[in-house]
């Protein structure tokens, strides 16, 4: 019964989300005003087949990560999000876990910054949502799963990213990543996913383990970054880190000085999108 109710709820919530409100084009003939299944799958970062199986009641136990992604893609309010967790047979995340909820105000901000690369991370620096311009700049992260969506894991264990670092910048950046993650672990000591992430990083990266044991203190701050883009070449951009304290989120906004060469390249990327890009992990 719960699975049937889950499928019905997903279809109902999908039908009420207008494509435009989710930053998607409304082109083509539609039988309903809401999201298509493939659009929901793209926004949530899961397969269309899994959406179909959930809606038809053939998938009975989605993970908390899948439920959280669906709640964000469907723009559920806090009560609806909690109900979705219960329909999936899961307890809604409590205060001891890293928050992953995008408030309506954060979502409105993303909706307005369509021409600016923006990504939202949770406190553990796991990617929650990235807009089209971020995907065009850094590589499309929609195919990333599990820890590959985490900024710290990606830096120490993932493939090379597009951000260029001098040796000094790399040392400082790595110290800030590890320091902030240690601080987050102190705030959410009972979060099993966070503990699993830290254990894997310590086991597989000597550099991370060294920094973790060093006791360095700090956090990721706004900075200037040079991104080596495979199609438009290098761009030097301001990367501002905006923090939403109520939900412990980080919003990274990349911008260029008006009239600069980097600004022109960003305009070109807004046209190119991801159509000719080779995906890379976020840096």
UniProtKB/TrEMBL annotation:
Record-linked InterPro entries: Cro/C1-type_HTH, Lambda_DNA-bd_dom_sf, MLTR_LBD
SUPFAM superfamilies: lambda repressor-like DNA-binding domains (SSF47413)
PANTHER family for this protein: BLL4672 PROTEIN, BLL4672 PROTEIN-RELATED
Protein name: Transcriptional regulator with XRE-family HTH domain
Chain ranges of the HTH cro/C1-type domain: 30-81
Source organism of this protein record: Streptomyces thermodiastaticus
Pfam families: HTH_31 (PF13560), MLTR_LBD (PF17765)
